[in-house]
Automatic annotation (TrEMBL):
SUPFAM superfamilies: Microbial and mitochondrial ADK, insert 'zinc finger' domain, P-loop containing nucleoside triphosphate hydrolases. This is adenylate kinase. Its EC number is 2.7.4.3. The keyword tRNA processing does not apply. PANTHER family: ADENYLATE KINASE (PTHR35509:SF6), DOMAIN PROTEIN, PUTATIVE (DUF1995)-RELATED (PTHR35509). It catalyses: AMP + ATP = 2 ADP. It is found in: Plastid, Chloroplast. InterPro entries: Adenyl_kin_sub, Adenylat/UMP-CMP_kin, Adenylat_kinase_CS, ADK_active_lid_dom_sf, Chloroplast_ADK, DUF1995, P-loop_NTPase. It comes from Gossypium darwinii (Darwin's cotton).
């Protein structure tokens, strides 16, 4: 553990109403047998061994309670883009031959749908017959239908020349259709113009020739060649300009997965580079299909259909230090919820967990426990091939007013010196950074922010907002944020822009929430707990002492939204819930907690 402990506790609790203080305390004695799960699980066990590939890492620990889950290889999903005459068609043929992907071209789709007389085809035909462009929604609908077919799901797909606009790219993003790689064939304009102007069409066979680069086989063929109407220099330049505008518009959507290939070379050399990229990507997917999971994970998976099968809250949570089993239980609980939220496309998330070792208002707070939680989350996403940036806010203010919250003092150094495994994750898939727009790099896939918080005289919100704006649609996860407004250096609350700051702080969606309940002004005994794990409801539990001397947590009620103090007290006192009653009091009364 990278932390120190103490046996005493102190906090600033407000006494206005029973069961109102969402804080925790520490008392001695631990009964490991009361834990509700069967085996320990160490994320960085000395027994663990690792498999390594250039983009995906596995940690498999041969300990009781683990099993290996294997799945079939996930197929490749590829997009390829290139200007007219860039050689894109040739490379598509070679890719399909080598990898067996389903080649999907919007031009081919339009012709097939129109000739088949489908509903989408008939709509597209109306626009084509009148000389108008087919609307994005029709083209996107055709692409979506084609991608949903079984052959594309099983073999993978190669999307050729689509999307061509920012609107089309965003439509695919909203439908959660995203490639593994976006290949761009890069060819100088003068070369592209020469290729187009020199092209000739054989009207008999439909074959394309080039006067210099690919001349016809005989004089007979040469005599019947014709120039296509759109292969004049003027029209080629116009098409190139349109392509550049479209390419620039969608570049931000796929910047993190874009690979530019020099297309001004022989086709064999170009394909060699593409082959290398796709082969490595396929290898990574194959390795990633084997992952270590807890035996209890099967019960967690079943929770989606029946929450009652959830394994329950560990007991003796006010014993300090927490046991390794208790820490790993919460690490895993947070990780499962975070993964579900990210997989569902959520991008602005927060984790709020205030067990005693993670409650900064108590002197039993352990920075090492927080760092371990961050490490578990970061390594798990790195195992999935994600490039994760772990960010800690730097010193705020200037001159004599410069400083940072005491809770975060030395945090960055701890992260840098922590054991991140011996397979090279740190520095490649995981990097340490600060909070701010300048910390966002194109290669970053997601960001984990360690306890971002305001300090007296300084506000982290502006830096945080700049970072999320720069991150775009990439996930940003706040771990135990404390974004309440604090007084300025003059001791006066800063009111200018306060509504906007509070609105921004509230824009992050909770993917995990856990807090212990006590009587106001006390930190003993634990009366119950509130837990929410994405995408489920908030659950209210009551701690019950058993005759045997053990304890358990009994579910009392669930809430769609975070319950107010009044609602919690009503449930504990057995009062009927007023579903029409507006939540009140919690934000004012617990402003120092939430």
């Amino acid at each position: 553990m990278l932390a120190t402990s103490s046996s005493s506790s102190s906090s600033t609790a407000i006494s206005l109403h029973p069961l109102t203080n969402y804080n925790a305390s520490a008392t001695p004695s631990l009964n490991p047998s009361s834990l509700s799960f069967s085996s320990s699980y160490s994320y960085l066990s000395p027994l663990s061994f690792r498999l390594h590939s250039s983009k995906t890492h596995l940690r498999i620990t041969p300990k009781k309670g683990l099993r290996v889950s294997c799945s079939t290889n996930e197929p490749l999903k590829v997009m390829i883009s290139g200007a007219p005459a860039s050689g894109k068609g040739t490379q598509c043929e070679l890719i399909v031959q080598k990898f067996g992907l389903v080649h999907i071209s919007t031009g081919d789709l339009l012709r097939a749908e129109v000739s088949s007389g489908t509903e989408i085809g008939n709509k597209a035909k109306e626009f084509m017959n009148s000389g108008r462009l087919v609307p994005d929604e029709i083209v996107t609908a055709m692409v979506t239908v084609r991608l949903s077919r079984q052959d594309a799901k099983e073999k993978g797909w190669l999307l050729d020349g689509y999307p061509r606009s920012f609107a089309q790219a965003q439509s695919l993003e909203e439908l959660n259709i995203r490639p593994d790689i976006y290949i761009v064939l890069d060819v100088p304009d003068e070369i592209l113009i020469d290729r187009c102007v020199g092209r000739r069409l054989d009207p008999v066979t439909g074959k394309i020739y080039h006067l210099k680069n690919f001349p016809p086989e005989s004089e007979e063929i040469k005599a019947r060649l014709v120039t296509r109407a759109d292969d004049t220099e003027e029209k080629v330049k116009s098409r190139l300009e349109i392509y550049k505008q479209n390419a620039a518009a969608i570049s931000s959507t796929y910047s993190s997965i874009t690979n530019k290939i020099d297309g001004n070379r022989p086709k064999e050399m170009i394909f060699k580079d593409i082959d290398s990229l796709l082969s490595q990507l396929l290898k990574d997917k194959t390795v990633k299909s084997v992952k270590p999971v807890l035996q209890t994970e099967s019960r967690l998976d079943q929770a989606s259909s029946n929450q009652e099968k959830w394994r329950g809250i560990p007991t003796r949570l006010n014993n300090i230090p927490h046991s390794r089993e208790i820490r790993n239980y919460f690490y895993d609980d947070v990780l499962q919820a975070t993964q579900r939220a990210v997989n569902d496309g959520r991008t602005r998330l927060k984790v709020e967990i205030n067990i005693p070792e993670l409650n900064p208002e108590m002197d039993v707070y352990r920075i090492g426990t927080l760092m371990e939680l961050v490490r578990v989350i970061a390594l798990s996403f790195a195992d999935d091939g994600k490039r994760v940036k772990v960010c800690v806010q730097g010193s705020m203010g200037e001159g004599a007013l410069a400083g940072m919250p005491l809770q975060l003092a030395g945090t960055r150094k701890i992260l840098e010196f922590m054991d991140w495994g011996n397979y090279g994750a740190m520095g490649t898939f995981i990097k340490i950074g600060s909070i701010g727009a300048k910390e966002v790099d194109e290669e970053d896939d997601m960001f984990i922010l360690v306890a971002p918080q305001n300090a007296v005289g300084n506000c982290i919100i502006d830096d945080l907002r700049g970072m999320t704006d720069a991150a775009g649609k990439r996930p940003v996860i706040l771990i135990n944020p404390r974004l309440k407004d604090l007084p300025g250096s003059s001791g006066i609350m800063q009111t200018m822009g306060r509504d906007k700051r509070l609105e921004y702080a509230a824009s992050f969606e909770s993917c995990y929430f856990f807090r212990l309940l006590y009587y106001a002004g006390t930190q003993y005994p634990i009366m119950g707990a509130i837990r929410m794990t994405y995408p489920y409801d908030y659950e209210l539990y009551k701690r019950v002492d058993e005759p045997s001397g053990k304890e358990k947590y009994v579910s009392l009620s669930t809430f769609k939204e975070r319950p107010t103090i009044d609602e919690i007290n009503d449930v504990f006192l057995g009062k009927p819930r007023n579903k029409d009653k507006k939540a009140s009091g919690i934000w004012g009364f617990l402003s120092g907690v939430f």
